[in-house]
Every structure is written in structure tokens, then in C-alpha cells.
Specification:
The protein is mostly beta strands. It contains eleven helices and 28 strands. It folds into two domains: 443 residues, Porin (Beta Barrel), CATH 2.40.160; 117 residues, 60s Ribosomal Protein L30, Chain: A (2-Layer Sandwich). The chain has a 23-stranded antiparallel β-sheet that branches. The protein has a three-stranded mixed β-sheet with strand order 27-26-28. α8 packs antiparallel against α9. It comes from Flavobacterium magnesitis.
Length: 687
């Protein structure tokens, strides 16, 4: 029996599913190189590579939600697909295909913060949406029986094209712990071949003719738009038309959190050969654009017809089958095919040293039911990996919405070769795998050179003004000098060319008043003064010409001869004695009479005025009476005056007293007047 054209009509002869991205599990690797630009063009900025050359790489994936198989059994002799496959037919099954081949491509740095990539790429994507799996199952049987199924409104797109892309990425923001880079890819698209089919309320009824099988009938209702990049009914060979072209754009951003950045490691962002981030966040939009097939055709077919098995078997190809059996109208003479626009986001966590965990999601943002619109299958994945310069291993764990299965894979990268699959582990153990994929490639990596730091001071030689001698970042890698050899480093020395103590920030102490007392010790740094007075001049408070340090009476003017105190003149002594002569005592007693207190107060006042003078109080008597008693009485009376003065605040240290009895008369004891003069207390200045 000839090829089943109805199977082509509803399923495009393939039960396959497009992965959300190519090179799943490999792309997040910091050593993915030029391949990473396909997922996010910003990823190549600040790359681990100086140059990365892809010689050849490919990523292909198949899958579906109709059939589940044990993948490796399929290749065994005698495997019966119809009998052994796990079937999951519904009224809206889906099928996709993705093949991605990267030809000679290269990425390289054009400046420290700017990177360029140029790549060549061939792609083929097939989408079959909302096909009735029961119809597919019935048509695929060799021995069919009567059936009647609503096919519904399936949408199928098959597109293949070549790409020439130029990607530019740059560091957009770099401050402390925060690092942001962006990228853009502009690509020229060369269309190769396109098929698309969109049904509208199609129904298929089969009636078997047991006597004449070739007269068995297919009754179809509904309509369908069918188009292709050329009229394959007249020429089945693919004709690549240079006018069938288009343009596309990819956009991306990547943010990195670099907590190990610090002021003394400001160069960490310049270390190209090492990982610097703890967390990396990326987001991109890919495949914005479309292609126009200049010689494309598109027709609207009226499917309200009944055809026989013989009509079906005799058709040489799908285009001829439609033209020979159904009426149609031409819609236009050109075909535009839209790219499978999608958003991608990922988070990469550097768990510890060379161990990472990546989470990413891929979301198609175009309508899957739009005419001639390719789309991706939405996917989420989690990929732990070990990553180093010459070797990486990764285990992608993913879930795709069409196959509706979790998949576990494995991948390896060496310096020049990588191979992996996001489903190989699942395929090996599952009896009903609905997807399979593989990616591999060979390349020539030229890694960034390890930055030199000969003196190990954390400042790279390229920025180090003293590359062989360790020094701090603040001094451009040079040790701090000490030009004046005072033990204070120049960075802390306010007088780097003149030696000085640390207490004065490396500057010598000044002596502004030139008094021989350094300002640090000078209590009067602007006025000359002796060291004994802390560098201050001695004061003369009372202005008597005797400095306070020598002035026994610093607040009262005096004479130099009397050490700054006022002189006690003979006039003063006379005044004192005038007061003392008027001091009266009780007869034969040393008791001072009250009426003498005013005179004593006068003595106190004068002694207070001359508070630096010392006085002696001498008691005297007349010759009347016993000599011994008179001597004692004179002593007692002198002491009584002394005690009175002390009681009034005169310091006892300034006073002394003595009695002389009758031994020092000043007048004759033979007369009453003379004896009165001899009974006295005299005040003598003690010098």
C-alpha cells in the first residue's frame, strides 16, 4: 500500500516534540561559550573565554503525548511499534520536532567589557497541535474497520531555515557587589522549506468495503488552509530561494550578585578566569521575527467530499492528493512564517566552589493556534552541575507540558568536546518514554589567561605599579614609604618629608613663641614663658613689680624688699601701739576690760591689712608690787591680747608674746603718770 496520505494530512507523518531550548543542561555552564548566545546573548560578556570556536555542534529532540516506548527497544530487530508502544490517544494530542545544527561559529572579546559572537546555524521545527490521536491510530492500521471521529481544528507547522547571527554583549553596570550585562543578537534568516496546515471543524468517517477494499470510502467535512514555501505538487525537490528570507532578534540581560567583592579586592570584577558570582539571574526573549517565502502558496480547501481508498492509494504526494480530490481557492501568493518567540529565565546558584544548581524556565509567548506559527513547548528544569575549566558534568531534571513527563538526563563537557541528553536516564529505565534528545559538539576553546599577581598582594600585575613588591590596593600595589624615616608611613604622615613623632602625626613639634617649651607642652604657645610655668610668663597680679611666684602678697601691692608685701612702717607700728596702750585690764589681772574691744578691733584691722607681717606682743608692768608677780602678770596680759587677736582670725603663726615685768620701763616709776606709762602691752614688728 502506498504511503498513507491521510496520516500526513493530520500528523505530518511524525510524532515528535520540540524541546523548549537546545543544548538543555549545557547552556547554563559558564564554559558553554558561543552556544550560550542561543539562549541569552548577554551571557557571553565577561566570559571565561578569550576566544571560543565552534567547529560543529547539534541538538535534536523528539517526543509526543501519543506514544510511550522503551527507547532502546525500538532499535531491536522485531520490535512492533503498534503492539508494544504505550498509547495515550485523546481528542487533542500534540506533536513537535526540533533540530538545531550550529556550524562554524566564534565568540571573542573586542574590549575588556565588550564581546562579539558570529555564528551560523540551521534549524528545523515541527509543531502539530490539537490532532485527534484516535484518528491517527485508525489511519495507521493496515486493517481498518468502520470509524467516525471529529478531527476538530488541528494546527500543524513545519519550518526549516538557516541563520547567520551576530551577537554583541557588554557590561552595563558594575558597582561593588552588583554586576549587570546585556546583549543583543541580530540574525539574517534564509528560508529553506515550509509546510503549514490549519483545519476548521474537520470530521472523518471511514466505511469499509469488505468485498472491494479499494472502494472503501473516506467521508470528510469541514475546511482546511494548507500552504507551503513552494508548489511541491509540480516540483517535489526543495528549491531554496534567496528571496525567501527574513530577520530576527534576540535580547537578553544577566545580573550577578558578587558578595566577595570588597574595597581591598576591587579587582575581582576584572578576574576573567574565575567565577565571581554567588547568584546569577538571567532573562531573555528569543526569536523575535519572521520569514517570507517569496514563492509560497496558500489555499483554502473545502473538505466536504467522499473519496475512496483507491483515490488515497493512487496519490503520489500530499499536494497532489489535495488538488485532485478537493476544491480550493487561492488565498495569496506568498507565505510568512513566524519564529517561535519565547521568554527564558534562569537562576544559577554557586553552592560551593565548583558546584552549582541551575533552575530555568522556558515559556512560549505566541499563539499555538495561529496560522503558520511555530512555538516552543513550555518547560521547567533543575540542573545540578560540577563545573571546572576543563571538565563539567550536569544532570538536568525537567518537565515539559506536552510530553507530560519528568525527564532526567546526563551531560559531560571536556575542553574540546561535549555530549549530553536531558532524557537519557529516563529513557534507559522507563518503559513509556515520550521524548528523547541528544546534543553534542566539538570546539576549540581559548581560555582567559590567569591574571598575574607576582607579589601576591591582590593587585593584578597589569594594575600594579610595584608588581614585584607587595603593597595595598590604595597605593596601586606599592608598599607605603617613609621618606623622612620617622617610623610613620607616608600615608599616615602629615609631614612625610620631615621627621616627627607619631603623637603629632609624623610632624615635628613647633615652638611658636620660641621660649624653649614645645607647643605640645606649652600652656601659652603664643606667648613666651619659662618652662617652670608651663611655657607661660609669670604674672604680677597686684602690679607691684614682684612676680607672683616671688610675691608673698600676690594680690596686694608691696615692695621688693618686703617680697611683694606692703611695708610695716614706724607709723603703722605707732598706730598699733596707740591702740595697744588703750587696752585696759582688770586690776592685778590679765582680764581685758570690755571697753578695750574697740581698740583691739583696730589692731585686728591693721594686722589684716599687713597680713604677711609677724608681730610680737610684749607685756610690761610698773615697779609696784612683787617683782615675780609682776613678771608673770606681764606675760599673761601679753598672752591675753594674743589670744584675742587669734580669736579674730589673725594667724597664730604670725604672733608671739612675752612678758618683761618691770625690766623695761619707759618712764619713771616714781610718779603716777610714769607708772601708768610703764603698765603697757607693746606691739613689735618681727623681721
Amino acid at each position: 500500500m502506498k504511503k498513507r496520505i491521510f496520516l500526513s494530512l493530520f500528523a505530518f507523518a511524525s510524532f515528535c516534540s520540540a524541546n523548549a531550548q537546545s543544548y538543555l543542561g549545557y547552556i547554563p555552564d559558564n564554559y558553554a561559550g558561543v552556544q550560550s548566545v542561543l539562549y541569552n546573548p548577554a551571557s557571553i560578556a565577561d566570559s571565561r573565554f578569550k576566544v571560543d570556536i565552534n567547529l560543529f555542534s547539534t541538538s535534536s529532540s523528539i517526543g509526543n503525548d501519543l506514544y510511550g516506548v522503551k527507547i532502546f527497544d525500538v532499535f531491536k530487530d522485531g520490535y512492533d511499534f503498534d503492539l508494544e508502544a504505550k498509547k495515550n490517544f485523546s481528542n487533542a494530542n500534540n506533536a513537535f520536532l526540533n533540530t538545531d545544527v550550529m556550524g562554524p561559529s566564534v565568540m571573542f572579546n573586542i574590549a575588556p567589557k565588550h564581546t562579539l559572537a558570529i555564528y551560523t546555524r540551521a534549524r528545523a521545527v515541527l509543531n502539530v497541535i490539537d490532532i485527534n490521536g484516535n484518528v491517527v491510530n485508525e489511519i495507521s492500521k493496515d486493517n481498518k474497520t468502520d470509524f467516525d471521529y471529529p478531527v476538530g481544528s488541528p494546527n500543524a507547522v513545519g519550518n526549516s531555515w538557516g541563520e547567520f547571527g551576530v551577537s554583541y554583549a557588554a557590561v552595563l553596570f558594575q558597582r561593588g557587589e552588583h554586576f549587570l550585562k546585556g546583549g543583543i543578537t541580530a540574525k539574517y534568516l534564509q528560508g529553506v522549506a515550509n509546510y503549514h496546515l490549519q483545519g476548521n471543524n474537520i470530521n472523518l468517517e471511514f466505511q469499509e468495503n469488505l468485498l472491494f477494499p479499494e472502494l472503501s470510502t473516506y467521508e470528510t467535512t469541514g475546511s482546511a488552509i494548507y500552504g507551503s514555501s513552494q508548489d511541491f505538487a509540480t516540483d517535489s525537490d526543495i528549491d531554496v530561494d534567496s528571496k525567501s528570507r527574513g530577520f530576527g532578534v534576540d535580547l537578553g540581560l544577566v545580573y550577578e550578585w558578587r558578595p566577595e567583592y570588597s574595597a581591598d579586592r576591587a579587582d575581582i570584577n576584572d578576574l576573567k578566569e574565575v567565577n565571581k558570582y554567588k547568584l546569577r539571574f538571567g532573562v531573555s526573549v528569543t526569536d523575535l521575527g519572521s520569514m517570507k517565502y517569496d514563492k509560497g502558496i496558500r489555499r483554502n480547501y473545502d473538505l466536504n467530499e467522499t473519496i475512496t481508498q483507491d483515490d488515497y492509494d493512487n496519490a503520489d504526494n500530499f499536494d497532489e492528493f489535495l488538488e485532485n480530490n478537493y476544491n480550493f481557492t487561492v488565498l495569496n501568493g506568498a507565505v510568512r512564517s513566524n519564529l517561535p518567540t519565547a521568554i527564558h529565565a534562569d537562576v544559577d546558584w554557586n553552592i560551593h566552589r565548583r558546584f552549582y544548581l541551575n533552575a530555568n524556565g522556558d515559556l512560549g509567548i505566541v499563539s499555538k493556534t495561529k496560522l503558520n506559527q511555530n512555538s516552543i513547548a513550555n518547560r521547567v528544569s533543575l540542573t545540578p552541575r560540577y563545573e571546572s575549566k576543563w571538565f563539567s558534568a550536569y544532570i538536568p531534571i525537567s518537565y515539559m507540558d506536552y510530553s507530560k513527563q519528568a525527564q532526567v538526563g546526563l551531560g559531560l563537557r571536556t575542553g574540546v568536546f561535549f555530549i549530553g541528553s536531558s532524557s537519557i536516564v529516563s529513557n534507559a529505565i522507563s518503559k513509556s518514554s515520550r521524548a528523547a534528545d541528544i546534543h553534542l559538539g566539538i570546539k576549540i576553546p581559548v581560555y582567559q589567561k590567569k591574571a598575574k599577581d607576582q607579589d601576591g598582594d591582590g593587585v593584578l600585575d597589569k594594575d600594579d605599579e610595584c608588581p614585584t613588591v607587595a603593597g595595598p590596593v590604595e597605593n596601586k600595589g606599592c608598599p607605603w614609604g617613609d621618606r623622612d624615616n620617622d617610623g610613620i608611613l607616608d600615608k599616615d604622615d602629615k609631614c612625610p618629608d620631615v621627621a616627627g613623632p607619631a603623637a603629632n602625626d609624623g610632624c615635628p613639634w613647633e615652638d611658636k613663641d620660641n621660649d624653649g617649651v614645645l607647643d605640645k607642652d606649652d600652656k601659652c604657645p603664643d606667648v613666651a614663658g619659662p618652662k617652670e610655668n608651663g611655657g607661660c610668663p609669670w604674672p604680677d597680679t597686684d602690679g607691684d613689680g614682684v612676680l607672683d611666684k616671688d610675691d608673698r602678697c600676690p594680690t596686694v601691692k608691696g615692695t621688693l624688699a618686703n617680697k611683694g608685701c606692703p611695708e610695716v612702717t614706724t607709723e603703722v607700728i605707732k598706730r598699733l601701739n596707740d591702740f595697744s596702750k588703750s587696752v585696759l585690764f582688770d586690776s592685778s589681772k590679765a582680764t581685758i576690760k570690755p571697753e578695750s574691744h574697740d581698740k583691739l578691733e583696730g589692731i585686728v584691722k591693721v594686722m589684716d591689712e599687713y597680713n604677711n607681717a609677724n608681730f610680737k606682743l610684749e607685756g610690761h608692768t610698773d615697779s609696784t608690787g612683787n617683782v615675780a608677780k609682776n613678771l608673770q602678770l606681764s606675760k599673761d596680759r601679753a598672752a591675753a591680747v594674743k589670744d584675742y587677736l587669734i580669736s579674730k582670725g589673725i594667724s597664730a603663726d604670725r604672733l608671739s608674746s612675752e612678758g618683761y615685768g618691770i625690766t623695761k620701763p619707759i618712764a619713771s616709776n616714781k610718779t603716777v603718770e610714769g607708772r601708768a606709762q610703764n603698765r603697757r602691752v607693746e606691739i613689735i614688728l618681727v623681721k
